[in-house]
Amino acid sequence: MRYAFCLYALAIFPLCEVKKRQYLTKTFIDFINKNQSSWRAGKFFLENVTSGNFVHLHPQLVLKVVDEVRVKDCNLEDLHIPDSFDARKEWPHCADVIGNIKDQGSCNSCWAFSSTGVMTDRLCIQSEGDVKFQFSPQDILSCCENCSTGWVGGGFWSRGWRYWTESGIVSGGDYDSYQGCVFYQESEYYLETKSPCIKFCNNPHYNISYAEAKHFGSDYYQVNPAEECIQAEIMSNGPVEAVFDLHEDFSYYKDGVYTYTIGGLVSLHSVKIVGWGAENGNPYWLAANSWGCMWGKLKGFF
Ligand SMILES: *[C@@H]1O[C@H](CO)[C@@H](O)[C@H](O)[C@H]1NC(C)=O
Ligand SMILES: *[C@@H]1O[C@H](CO)[C@@H](O)[C@H](O)[C@H]1NC(C)=O
Ligand SMILES: *[C@@H]1O[C@H](CO)[C@@H](O)[C@H](O)[C@H]1NC(C)=O
């Protein structure tokens, strides 16, 4: 079967590069908490995994690339957009799939996680919970040549989606999970390079071949960036991939409605939006990050 899904923005990311970064200080956290009341900052990672989880925070400017990706028409007729929405509640038979927080580890593979996360959620939603097929971020990372840019090691968002329609993506679970055909390999906190493309299942317990495990998308598209159009898309079809400027303070998110407060621009970051709402009058998007469930008080959501 082939399925249609969406894409929200196009960008290039550094892939799986390890660069250590000085930790932000307590002074920095205190500043955030005193300077505004929308969100609260804290230190949430365990001490010994902090450096690993922060390697994606290196101050390298990333390029925005515009690939030609169709922008879907936005039709708001007869649509009542509620004040709040959570895809996990809307599709309870897929709540475990949509709420599954991933951990990209030391690899700058957020784009692979948010895109395969959306593919996985939407396949579950469209099959009314019958198909819980977890698309493998590792398969795109290792095997999509056009998704990265040689020695710079960058990743283009739209290429992961194109790879899905042209080459298909196999199943694959978390690091060391032995789930699916190609489970995640890049989560070691000091890994230096990305894993090569092997084109067979790295899971010896998986009894389907790599070729048979490939699932193809039929189409992908961008969503009109107007707020209501994004909401309409999520309500009608499920979560979407989103891209935003990642600043240093975001790493220290604890809870509340995040809004940029202090710190340098790190790179672009990609996440999965699953809903929206408002807190104390501040409207927000509800999104799943891919920094593990130890990040933040909402266990990986923000
Ligand atoms: C927050 O910090 C900025 C920059 O230092 C400052 O201009 C602003 O007045 C501060 N706001 C509050 C409420 O402390
Ligand atoms: C990391 O921290 C956890 C929790 O404090 C601890 O159980 C574990 O042994 C630590 N691992 C290493 C390698 O230090
Ligand atoms: C990779 O990119 C080249 C040049 O844009 C294109 O001709 C080729 O079809 C792409 N290959 C895949 C597998 O997407």
From TrEMBL:
Peptidase C1A papain C-terminal domain span: 81-302
Q: Which GO terms describe its biological process?
A: proteolysis
Pfam family, any one: Peptidase_C1
Q: Which GO terms describe its molecular function?
A: cysteine-type peptidase activity
Similarity annotation: Belongs to the peptidase C1 family.
Protein's name in the database: Peptidase C1A papain C-terminal domain-containing protein
State the organism named in the record. Tenebrio molitor
